[in-house]
Amino acid sequence: KDTKEDETKKNDTEQENSRQNETEAAVNKTTTEENKVSIVKVPLTIHYNPVEIIPLPANEKAIAKKRIQELDFMDKQKKLREEARNALEGFVYRVQDFLYDDTVQIVATEDEIEKFREKLSETSDWLYDEGEQADTQVYNTKLRELQSIEKPIQYRFKEYNERSKNIDRLTSAIKLVRDFVASIHSQPEEDRYHTKEELQSVLLTANTVEEWMNEQIEAQKKQNETQDPIITTAKVLEKKKLLDDEFVKLLAKKKPKNKKESPPKNKTDEESKEEEKPSDEHNHDEL
């Protein structure tokens, strides 16, 4: 009895396993079929229909052109206004710092500096209040007004800083001329090719310029630095150019070439014949 039951269970198990295997095989087959992709080629036909740009009518074109010009003008005006405002604002900041320079304290009076600072502060406040909506012309007018106040201070400031350099430049030019003339005088007489008049003339100019410079230096010492300077860059450059021009002429003068001795002329045939004639006559006499 037990044997029959065991066989029955065994058969049932085998049948169950067989059914499971069949089911798994069916599932795997279905999955494989689903994963398989089919590629289908379909012919496409492209049609090209060119479309021409239809020109605007003359009246519409004129309106569009006028509108573009108006927009360009508005952009230009906006840019000019921004540039004018930035220029005024930048000037205020720069000069506010400039007025604290040590040299400015020398060349400008306290009252002059203080009034200028108040004007700059007033302009700065205006820029961030009423000036926000100002037009280009107003910005430019205020800038020119401030520049007119700064100009004399800036002029004295620059001249004060350049004064020592200008005096040194002129002194060097005078020394250069004198050294040049001295070097020529040290040469033997026969090697010189500059005339005494030329050398005396350039020395006279150097002496005159030096005398002028010394007078200017003495006058400058008596002048208050808050007043316009006596020694200016323009005056110094003018005197230096006067001296340089005359000096350059001497430097540009070329040494003349030495004259070569001409070789003795060859005797001509006629001269030779003339010399031979007395000899022939003498021979005839002997005969």
From TrEMBL:
Highest taxon, organism lineage: Eukaryota
An example Gene Ontology CC term for this record: endoplasmic reticulum chaperone complex
Entry's transmembrane regions: none
UniProt keyword annotation of Translocase present: no
One Gene Ontology molecular-function label: ATP-dependent protein folding chaperone
BP GO annotations: endoplasmic reticulum unfolded protein response
Leader peptide range in chain numbering: none
PANTHER family: HSC70CB, ISOFORM G-RELATED, HYPOXIA UP-REGULATED PROTEIN 1
InterPro entries, per database record: HSP70_C_sf (IPR029048), Hsp_70_fam (IPR013126)
Annotated Basic and acidic residues bias: 1-22, 259-287
Organism name: Rhizopus azygosporus (Rhizopus microsporus var. azygosporus)
UniProt keywords, alphabetically: ATP-binding, Chaperone, Nucleotide-binding, Stress response
Descriptive protein name: Heat shock 105kDa/110kDa protein 1
Region (Disordered): 1-34, 252-287
